[in-house]
Design a protein that fits this description.
There is one protein chain. The longest helix has 15 residues. The N terminus is likely disordered. 6% of the residues lie in helices and 44% in strands. The chain is globular. The N and C termini lie far apart (46 Å). Strands 1-28-27-26 form a 4-stranded antiparallel beta sheet, with no helix packed on it. It has a 4-stranded antiparallel beta sheet with strand order 2-3-4-5, with no helix packed on it. It is mainly β. It is built from 2 helices and 28 strands. A hairpin with a 2-residue loop joins strand 16 and strand 17.
Length: 313
């Protein structure tokens, strides 16, 4: 065997031994700052609807403040307040309606409330409550339904998966999340629901890197490639075909880390770091941009009014 061939074989072996995350193409883009929110806060719910970004509840706002961002005007305004204050809720938009689900009230009491917001009338209505009250949960829309996953229930459980049918105003239980957790993120992509990272028992000293995918056809979960950086208090969204995870907290501080997952190849790649590290933030896609809003710049109960957007290069 020639020396040149031997070197090629060794190089090939090393390449095969590298983690899949290191083989994926990095996510590219540039971050820009936008107009600050009117109210500094963290542990919010956020979703895009009708070309606007909505941020609901959280610490620092009294829990009921709703703000709407217009990307064309680069301006925020307040809208009708949430009927009941809440922090650590989940949010999702579907068929022109914004849904705010669960969260904590009266300190750290998990609630099952579901409120629906119509931006045309600027009014909230109460919808059927979740079967299981939960705070620090995540939600995503898949095939015309809203899936609410994880979070801390009154009995301490955190493996719950329930699905909401807005047309019937009805909830149903589904296969439990294999790895119970809270302060996670959820994103729907390629016909699956992805439950991303989070922590155990509400403690950011027990952060996880676990990624699990749910198939609504078979009602089964499967393990996928772990997030490279274990963290909780994250936000995530589907942008440019990849699930982009940003922010988070740990005992050592807050994260500026951005990592992107390709559901087709089951690989992670690095992305451009957040300009401002924070946790308990919200994320949503508006037009070409991925927005990161609010969040605490220090672990625990800090707040910010920051609006940053990741744009394609």
């Amino acid at each position: 065997m020639s020396l040149r061939l031997a070197r090629m074989l060794v190089a090939g072996s090393l390449l095969l031994a590298l983690p899949a995350a290191l083989l994926a193409a990095p996510l590219t883009g540039r971050w820009e700052r936008r107009a600050p929110m009117r109210t500094a806060r963290s542990e919010v719910a956020a979703a895009a609807l009708g070309g606007r970004l909505y941020v609901v509840g959280g610490f620092g706002s009294g829990g009921a403040v709703v703000e709407e961002y217009d990307p064309l005007a680069d301006a925020w305004r307040e809208r009708a307040a949430l009927p009941a204050p809440v922090h650590h809720p989940a949010a999702a938009s579907l068929d022109g309606v914004l849904y705010v689900i669960g969260g904590y009230r009266n300190g750290w009491t998990p609630v099952a409330d579901v409120f629906a917001y119509d931006p045309r009338s600027d009014r909230w209505t109460r919808r059927a409550s979740m079967p299981t009250p939960r705070g620090a949960l995540a939600a995503a829309v898949l095939e015309g339904r809203i899936y609410a996953v994880g979070g801390i229930a009154p009995d301490g459980g955190s493996r719950t998966l329930e699905v909401y049918d807005p047309q019937a105003d009805r909830w149903e239980g589904r296969a439990s999340l294999p790895t119970g957790r809270d302060h996670l993120a959820a994103v729907a992509a390629a016909g699956r629901l992805y439950a991303i990272a989070g922590r155990v028992g509400g403690s950011y000293a027990r952060n996880l890197a676990v990624l699990e995918a749910y198939d609504p056809v078979t009602d089964r979960w499967e393990r996928r490639a772990d997030l490279p950086s274990p963290r909780s208090g994250i936000a995530a969204a589907l942008w440019q075909g990849r699930i982009v995870v940003m922010g988070g907290e740990a005992p050592s501080g807050t994260f500026a880390t951005v990592e992107a997952y390709d559901p087709v190849t089951d690989r992670w790649a690095p992305g451009p770091s957040l300009p401002t590290a924070r946790h308990g933030l919200g994320a949503a896609v508006l037009g070409p941009g991925l927005y990161a809003v609010a969040g605490g710049t220090m672990p625990g109960g800090s707040q910010s009014d920051i609006t940053e957007v990741l744009l394609p290069r």
